[in-house]
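Known limitations

Structure tokens in this collection are predictions and should be treated as such. Users comparing against experimental data should check residue numbering before alignment. To illustrate the layout, the record for TetR/AcrR family transcriptional regulator is reproduced below. The input appears on top and the generated tokens appear beneath it.
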Amino acid sequence: MTSARAEPPARRLTARGALTRDRIVRAAAGLMHANGVAGTTMDHVIEASGTSKSQLYHYFDDKDALVVAVIKMQAARVMERHEPHLEQLSSLQGLRRWRDAVVRFVEERRGAHGCEIGSLASELADRSEPARILINATFRSWESYLAAGLRRMQDRGELDVEADVGELATGIMAAYQGGYLLSQAGRSAQPMALALDLAIRNVEALVPQPKSASGAAH
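Generated tokens:
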């Protein structure tokens, strides 16, 4: 992927056509997550999706267009998995529950293939500007959920009002992505657990401490 051309307008699909297109994108997403974008050919996608070459090229002009659709699908999948934990985030306890869910997910897969979005970022961000923009938008959306939760903590008095929630959210996201990379390499959820624990400790350090009775007397 090297071009930065604008994405063509979406074709109006019949219900059957939408199902076929979705099957193609799902097959491509699975292949690209397991084998990388470079390691996935259009012929691989045709075989995995059970479609013909003419069907594939009816919905996607080229591999670049298919990759864009895969990024969007993977972004939706990732956010669907995290939204239940982050939409109502408003406390350290909620942040730890999200951390526990993440670690369980990584542990079940022993880190295999890494983050769906992170793996695409590492392969495409320096090769395709349209892909980089889409992936970056996904990260920013993800961080916005974390920042909103941290802001709710501020509103409840559980986080210093002077804390920069945007910076904290970016730090948590960096810990997540770095933890996933190490978990992928080590086939262990331990790096993810450690990375998120350290990020959450940074948040804990900004929790206002109640004044002691002796301090109040002075």
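For this record: The first helix runs from residue 15 to 35. Confidence is low (pLDDT under 50) at residues 1-8. Please report discrepancies through the issue tracker.
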